Amino acid sequence: MTVLTHNLALPGHYQRAELLAFHQRDAQQFAEQVNETTLAKGIFWDNTPARLRIDFQHDQAQAQLQIDSLQTVTSEQLQDWRLWLEYFLGLQQPITEFLQAHQTHPELGPLLSRQAGLRVAQTSSPFEAVSWAIIGQQISVAAALNIRRRFIELAGAQHSSGIWCYPNAQRVAQLSIEQLRSAGLSQNKARAIAQISQQLASGQMRWPQQITDDNLGQLRTALLAIPGIGPWTVNYTLMRGFAWLDGSLHGDAAVRRYLQELLQAEQLTAQQTEQWLAQFSPWRALVAAHLWQSQGFSG
């Protein structure tokens, strides 16, 4: 086993609760194990099962990655590990600029003040983000979590500690649509996950290191070309898998419902929600996260 460690200083307004709540969705703690101060999560690191553990203290996070193989770790790999942790913990998100820009907004400002320091919780990879988004389309959270658990058991692997690791695209690409359907996925969802997995595994599609103005349009086009992936799934993937915070989640039913409560409106259409969110660009997805959090929903 190879073990990587790193300690990170946390800003004074860091909120770990939203991160922990997002990874505590599955009450069976199949691939994530969470308590008030600790997160353990099974992931694939360089195609090898690994167990991530993060212990939170009031001003720092102590992280450890147990990789189920013996490796000689280079300085470049150590740097990748440290940068990935910053991404995963949301430390690169420009929340201070967002708060300064909109803390006096008549409708959103009071909510931002109550939830100052909120960050968008991240998945372990863009593939986890897009596959989870597809799994959860138009079904209840409970049903989605049940399918997610079966999907992990089907395509993932168990770490030596016992925790299950969320599969990567390379593993999923080896499965047939019939096998994916056995996890409870519909035909369309199984086909979408199979297609994106195969494109990633073959190199036909490549995730960028980060989202820029130059690659955003190309990535959107590639994802939208896959049947079963629409604008909401793309924006959710960008938000949870790349920490790109300008996706408009006006198509999200929970966002519309919570915005109606905030504005004390009887009913809002997706178009009205989109128009209201537009004023907060380039942080529209962060507004959605605040709306979710206001109702105790982790998205």
Give the helix/strand class: alpha+beta
Mind telling me the C-alpha Rg? 19 Å
CATH homologous superfamily (4th level) name of the largest domain: Hypothetical protein, domain 2
- Spatially, the strands of the biggest sheet line up as 1-5-4-3-2
Distance between the termini: 34 Å
Assign the CATH topology of the largest domain: Endonuclease III, domain 1
Extended strand count: 7
Domains (count): 3
User: What is the percentage of strand-forming residues?
Assistant: 5-15%
Shape: globular
Task: Specify the number of helices.
Answer: 14
User: How would a crystallographer describe the biggest sheet?
Assistant: 5 strands, antiparallel
Protein name: DNA-3-methyladenine glycosylase II
Keywords: DNA damage, DNA repair
GO molecular function, one term: DNA-3-methyladenine glycosylase activity
Family: Belongs to the alkylbase DNA glycosidase AlkA family.
Secondary structure layout:
Layout: E1 2-9, H1 16-22, E2 32-34, E3 38-45, E4 48-56, E5 60-67, H2 75-88, H3 95-102, H4 109-114, H5 126-135, H6 141-155, E6 157-158, E7 164-165, H7 169-172, H8 177-181, H9 187-202, H10 213-224, H11 231-242, H12 253-263, H13 270-277, H14 284-294
Antiparallel strand pairs: 1-5, 2-3, 3-4, 4-5, 6-7
